[in-house]
Amino acid sequence: MQNLGAANHFSHSTKVSFVLLFILTVAGIQAQTVVPAWYNQVHEVEIDKLLDKMTLEEKVGQMTLFTSDWDVTGPTIRKGYEADIKSGRLGAIFNAHTADYNRRLQKIAVEETRLGIPLLFGYDVIHGYRTIFPIPLAEAGSFNPAAAEESARIAARESAAAGLHWTFAPMVDIARDPRWGRVMEGAGEDVYLGNVMGAARVRGFQGDDLADPFTLLACAKHFAAYGAAQAGRDYHTVDISERVLHDIYLPPFKAVLDAGAATFMTSFNELDGVPATANEHLLTEILREDWGFMGFVVTDYTSINEMIPHGIAKDEAEAGLLAVNAGVDMDMQGAVFYNNLRKQVENGEVAMKMIDDAVRRVLRMKFALGLFDDPYRYSDSEREKANILTPAHREAARRIARESMILLKNDNETLPLSKNLKRIAVIGSLADSGADMIGAWHADGRAEDVVTLLTGLKEALGSAVKVDFVDVDAIKGTDRKGFDEALKAARSADAVILALGETWEMSGEAASRADIGLPGVQDQLVEELSQTGKPFVAVLFNGRPLAIPELDKKAAAILEAWFPGTEAGHAIADLLFGDDAPSAKVPLTFPRSVGQVPVFYAAKNTGRPRNPNEKYTSKYLDEENSPLYPFGYGLTYTTFSYGDPVADKTEMNRNGKVKILTTVTNTGKRTGTEVVQLYVRDLAGSVTRPLRELKAFQRVELSAGESKTVSFELTAEDLSFYRRDMTFGPEAGEYQVFVGGDSRAEKSVTITFK
Ligand code: GLC
């Protein structure tokens, strides 16, 4: 999306955008609208002509999305969608994929209906289509937006080759409660990291040209504040202040809109008593009037129908009115628009202009995709074969998986392991489970494509090393079955790898956990293994931060692998044997116990911050305040030291910038990559402000002994927030600027905003 004010050189498309901006301004669309790049491919005049030809029933069809009966991602499946296409009453389908299948459905729409309006095909391509990348939470931990953009681009390449036009991603819900299963889909707790990774994924999915047959429409979801569900229980109530909504939960949505996101999806939750799908404040006032969004809004799965159990609609007809009047353009799977909207327009309950505006926004995307030029450009089975699960895609998946894994512990430099071993014990069913490595929301990912941990280790070690694999299932197990064999293998091994964590179904949608420890009897296995006295390396596979204080005490080393995707085993082996070094950092705080939740770094100080010597201060009687592993934390195979940060000026005003410099030195014996992080604290605001907020980061590779000066630039925008009067901006006063390797960074410099 061109930010017109920022363009230094006026390319052709920017000149076009200036013209468009003028037209849009005249057309009454907000002057501050930053026109998305894809708008250059939209032909409003063509849309006008088509709208003039359409019947009301055909218009409602463009506002209707049904699932195919291939893949269930929600509670109901509607039969007969092919007949709906033929009747012109269905404009989009999800969960239908492969070039041939979608071509068959598209032919019905284009060749057997009155107007031949092409279908839109959507699918949940969340972290890869067939080549599966690490779950988005893991990828966020890489603090590498280029990696996120690359994996999204590959996912788009594979999906578009398989007949798809639209992915229901990126999920940009800030989440600070690891009990919530859907933390695996997002970028974790931090606003800035969420902004950066969300925008990178939109760029990856949409590229520079939506008509390019290797790009997809992105979908920003779930709008909004779905991650703030009470008690971390999926679909639960969200009750947050307008300030928290604007400071914490909305920024990633604005970031992805500014990156050009073509569609938005409403969330299931209510917000301040109004379900998002009926929330005019969200969908019209903020999204369209304040932000100038020009794409379309789709609901989440039957979320219009769910306004009845929410208790704000007596029946589906009323729910449909609430949704369309709030600003919903397309009804996913609910058939509420399908069943009611025509009558509601005919009896004057809904203005035809409301329908035309919604249909226009949907048709814009079909034009931007080039579907009216060539409705079959995405349905080429030869292209599909050539672009799915290629060696290049696997290489990218392996590299990005390596960059997404966090070294949480490494006592006595246990890692990297030498390959000069006679025997290695590999314990735990997850070590040989392809299905678990691809995690939830794995689209067309297949267990049989996966390189498991066991396979990766065997390939890395070769046939000379004896690999004793003990397939003990301590996750679903309820007793010691397999423990004795595991302990025996450990005792006779030169190295012990213990695969622990969750199965893939234990996170994702409708998968909240009240206890976020190691499920099953894994803690017992850890305890008995530790009693052998044999040091062991734990490799964690999980979709959420786990409360693992016992494992932290007993394991010699812990590598957080999350659900690393199709190349899991190769990536882990690369790190365990030192062919590469871990570099990821914690994107979502690991608590010591679930009783601390929510616990996150950007917390407020309170009026009685913890003082261990004072009774009446903010603390627990039975637990630390500090988490087990804080945001931004992660080890590698070397160490780093930081010089004191220096500011090139100590004062800044609204138009000013301050450069912050710090010297980072590799003080160890191996090359390593550090994520240098910059945090800001507003020492006294018109409202209380977090102890720290991440405002910038840089991945820096340093060889042993090497030093580098890392430079950041702070602007007034970086210091801005929703002030006491709910206006957005900075405030005069002192700001402490911290630079370091995680959110506990101590070294700081103070600047004054005038
Ligand atoms: C699900 C999810 C949403 C997904 C949609 C389609 O219920 O909430 O993220 O995109 O339905 O599968």
From TrEMBL:
Pfam families: Fn3-like, Glyco_hydro_3, Glyco_hydro_3_C. GO terms for cellular component: periplasmic space. It catalyses: Hydrolysis of terminal, non-reducing beta-D-glucosyl residues with release of beta-D-glucose. One of its GO terms (biological process) is glucan catabolic process. Keywords: Glycosidase, Hydrolase, Periplasm, Signal. GO terms for molecular function: beta-glucosidase activity. Its EC number is 3.2.1.21. The keyword DNA repair does not apply. It comes from the Bacteria. InterPro entries: Cellulose_Degrad_GH3, Fn3-like, GH, Glyco_hydro_3_AS, Glyco_hydro_3_C, Glyco_hydro_3_C_sf, Glyco_hydro_3_N, Glyco_hydro_3_N_sf. The keyword Hydrolase applies. It is found in: Periplasm. Residues 674-743 form the Fibronectin type III-like domain. Belongs to the glycosyl hydrolase 3 family. This is Periplasmic beta-glucosidase. It comes from Neolewinella aurantiaca. The lineage of its organism: Bacteria, Pseudomonadati, Bacteroidota, Saprospiria, Saprospirales.
